[in-house]
Design a protein that fits this description.
Elements (H helix, E strand, L loop, with lengths): L1 E7 L5 E6 L4 E3 L3 E4 L13 E4 L2 E6 L2 E5 L1 E3 L3 E5 L4
Antiparallel strand pairs: 1-2, 2-9, 3-8, 4-5, 6-7, 6-9
């Protein structure tokens, strides 16, 4: 999944909003985050996080869903730390 934006959710948390390019992401999955990658200076900068919730974001509303298949745009909660 390529995360293009962090959208404020409730109680100071954020949804990672983006498109799933391969596979399926479900609630409870373990993901690895690569942020601000620079091949000349940053090596092995992966951070491990757990997805606590997957949501379908439609305008100002968000609807919880069990999984996000490839090709869809949705949000993940739990990886904003």
């Amino acid at each position: 999944m390529f995360v293009s934006k962090m959208i404020p959710a409730d109680k100071g948390r954020f949804f990672a909003y983006g498109r799933v390019f391969s596979g399926t992401i479900s609630s409870g999955d373990k993901v690895f985050i690569l942020e601000n990658y620079n091949p000349e200076t940053d090596r092995n900068t992966l951070k491990e996080r757990n997805v606590t919730r997957t949501v379908l974001i439609m305008g100002a509303k968000s609807e919880p869903i069990s999984s996000i298949p490839c090709g869809n745009i949705a949000g993940l909660q739990g990886i904003d730390k």
